[in-house]
Amino acid sequence: MNESVENMYQGLFVTETVLGNPNGSFVNNEPRNIDGRVFTTDKCIKYNIRNYLYQEYEDTENLENFVFFYPRKSKNAEEYQASYMTKTNVFKEYFDNDFDKLIKSCVDARIFGGTFSFKQGQEKSIYGPVQLSYGLDLIGADIVNHRMGTPFSSDEGKQKTTGEKRVVDHAVIAYDITVNPNVSPGLLKEEDLEKFKRGIIRGTNLRKSTSKSTDAKLLMLAKFVDGKTLNLGELKHLMNVKSKKITDPEERSNELILDLKDIKNKLDNFEEEIDEIDIYKDESVKIQNFYEQDDNVQVKEYGFHEL
To answer: Which has the closest alpha carbon to 98: 40, 300, 19, 90?
Structure first.
């Protein structure tokens, strides 16, 4: 598992949000959208992954699976205070300003790369082998506005309104994933890739609050044969969601039906370049019009609990 990843991968990650905010804008925390078309940035998923890696694997004492791009409390801050270390201080405190030591220790840096600039003038950029696209809603989610009140009254004895909360009624969001170890040879380890797969699923499901109620639904990765370097283009636009959009949560179906016919047609053009396709899916997901057992492309399906 400590061997370097040699093969390229390409695939999809799919999430579902019902009455939640999959990725709020910094301006007003409204679900990100372009003229009402809901989208998300890659950073919201990367945070989920880093948060999971931090909680599940990080060993700061031995500097193993350290998550570099993660907020760390200042040494003199109280537990309740939002006071955090700078990037330069983390570099000095944990890694003695040794960049090679940082890369060897930091799992998220090996997965996603990053730009590392420190006050002492040292600056490096690493292009990460694993890249995520922005996410795009595929079912026409609508943004719902909720006004919130406070238990305290105004001077006139009326209840105060503290603000507004905007959520989506129902969104199914897809992200493209590429894994290209050739951009930084030897950097990404097989064990890192396994942690990424666990993190993207479990980390997304772990991050639950009154606003961020997003569930991981499907992770698909097509592994290309040894030595093959190619990019199939974006796949998320080719996926069709057959489930009805939910406007009333009480009518929520137990199934999320995903039609992969157009994705299969695309993959058919690269049949000889594909070694196998791994699919990890929630038990509520039903896949239509994809490869069968007697097809030339080998597909392996797993439940989330098997990852």
So the answer is: 90
